[in-house]
Amino acid sequence: MKNLRTLKKYFIRYKKKLFFGFIFILFSNAGTVYVPILMKDAINQLQNNTTTHTLLYYSSLIVLSSLIAGIFRFLIRQTIIVVSREIEFDLRNDFWSHIQKLPLRYFQNNSTGNIMSHATNDINAVRNFIGPAVMYSIDTGVRLLIVVTIMLSLDWTLTLAALFPLPLLSYGVYRIMKLIHEKYTKIQEAFSVLTTVAQENFSGIRVIKSYVREANEIQKWKNLSKDYLNKNMNLVRIQAWIMPILLIITGISIIIVIWIGGLKVINGSMNLGEITAFIVYLGILIWPVIAFGWVTNIVQQAEASMKRLNKIFAEPYEIDDNEETDYSIKEIKGEIEFRNVSFRYSEVLPNVLTNINLKIPVGSTLAIIGHTGSGKTTMINLIPRLYDTSEGEVLIDGIDVRKIPLDVLRKHIGLVPQESFLFSDTITNNIGYGLREICKEKIIEVSRIAQFDKDVETFPQGYETIVGERGITFSGGQKQRACLARALAIEPKILILDDSFSAVDTNTEEEILKNLRQYMKNRTSIIISHRISTVKDADIIIVLHEGKIAEQGTHDELVALGGLYADLHFKQLLEKELEELN
């Protein structure tokens, strides 16, 4: 149970409710175990020519004891089981909060489906341990202690004889539970794969249909489902042994009590009431013994799930505020400097960026151009600290970005990534995603700047139109313009456009750039593009080649230089002329 020890902080948080739950367990069991004593006395009275009044007296006490046991049983569930739900709520929120803070590197190495299975199956398995397992562990432990004590007081030799088979039960359960732990871990891993495939199919349904791969995906799903079924059936076959073993061993105990107890009644060393109470107590013990196996099963499943969750909780944030963070910084102006910056994604991989030195004054526009894989996106991802540099430093307003609080840094940066992503929500909520309070006038204004307002007017519900998952109802150009509007809505000091006009026609692009020049006055802009027409008016243009700045200057200076930029420029001019001729 070493992995389940991490739940200690949650139990401490609700220790008051758990304490009352323990008290309720004591009272509930007191009512339960008092019933056989009343039955013993009632049966003994029957042997002594008892009256109707006496029978009514004992019957009333038995009903009262059962009622007390039932009321406190209800209160147990209102405390311990409720606490399990509250801890599940806290655990799920902590898991979600931790996932949100993990670096991009983690999500690149772990599938969405795998993470989803942790958030569903694993957390639910842990909740079963917190609630039913904890409740029944305490309940059966207390009941076992009280009942065995009373049985020993009635006849210690008969008690020892009745309990003799139980060590065999413990050993059998131990062996079975060890196998259950191994099988359940494999089941959870198979479920992760199943969830991953489901998520990928739902997200990539257009690709599947386009390539007519439905039958292939159906067969693939059947194979994975069959594997998941087989792993579950392996577990079920092992679990199927638990109940028969429990019932056989407890049945042996009952036979021992009836045989030995019956002989004692015959020779007069026990009376009929005591042997009856003994058999009832043994019946009461059957549930704790059965619950022991059931609880052990739950604990083993929770242990396997908590091990998987702890592995995620152990993942370091990598990028977070630390002791060097200057919390006095509340605003940034927008001057950016790359000072001897090099970056690689891991120690075993080569540098993606090498010795980048660049200064971008406040209010200027930097354009980055270069072939695919030259490091353009990696370079701009260092500014909002989606990654940290391997060497050197990125500064904003002369301050290392690692010293600026993350929330301050990122709330002043508007980033439009290469891959446009929209939530399955209204256009208004998508554009206003970064705002604390949505202002309709601002939504309309930034939509106009992004040349998106005319498109919105054609939608049936206007700005309240649901865009569908990942913006499935939008064209590529519409998604890019909606994402641009979302970035502009937060009024960023630094606007980063990572090839954000690739799906937009050149006329619309010119209008957007014209609007941006006015909107981004006195703010810093960074534009990544493959089109010379997009970057030619930038204050500074750099050409990245194999992770290094190969050329730097204005459009005219770079054309005059006759290098990589000039070559790309003349190729695009030729392409344009050929298009016009056609």
UniProtKB/TrEMBL annotation:
Primary location group: membrane
PANTHER family: ATP-BINDING CASSETTE SUB-FAMILY B MEMBER 10, MITOCHONDRIAL, ATP-DEPENDENT PERMEASE MDL1, MITOCHONDRIAL
Keywords of the record: ATP-binding, Cell membrane, Membrane, Nucleotide-binding, Transmembrane, Transmembrane helix, Transport
Listed GO CC annotations: plasma membrane
Catalysed reaction, written as an equation: ATP + H2O + xenobioticSide 1 = ADP + phosphate + xenobioticSide 2
Domain ABC transporter: 336-571
SUPFAM superfamilies: ABC transporter transmembrane region (SSF90123), P-loop containing nucleoside triphosphate hydrolases (SSF52540)
Originating species: Ignavibacterium album (strain DSM 19864 / JCM 16511 / NBRC 101810 / Mat9-16)
Spans traversing the lipid bilayer: 18-37, 57-76, 133-152, 158-177, 241-263, 275-299
Subcellular location: Cell membrane
Pfam families in the cross-refs: ABC_membrane, ABC_tran
Protein name, entry field: Multidrug resistance-like ATP-binding protein MdlA
CDD domains xrefs: ABC_6TM_TmrB_like (cd18541)
PROSITE patterns cross-referenced by the UniProt entry: ABC_TM1F (PS50929), ABC_TRANSPORTER_1 (PS00211), ABC_TRANSPORTER_2 (PS50893)
EC number(s) recorded for this UniProt protein: 7.6.2.2
Topology in the lipid bilayer: Multi-pass membrane protein
Domain of life: Bacteria
GO function term, MF aspect, one: ATP hydrolysis activity
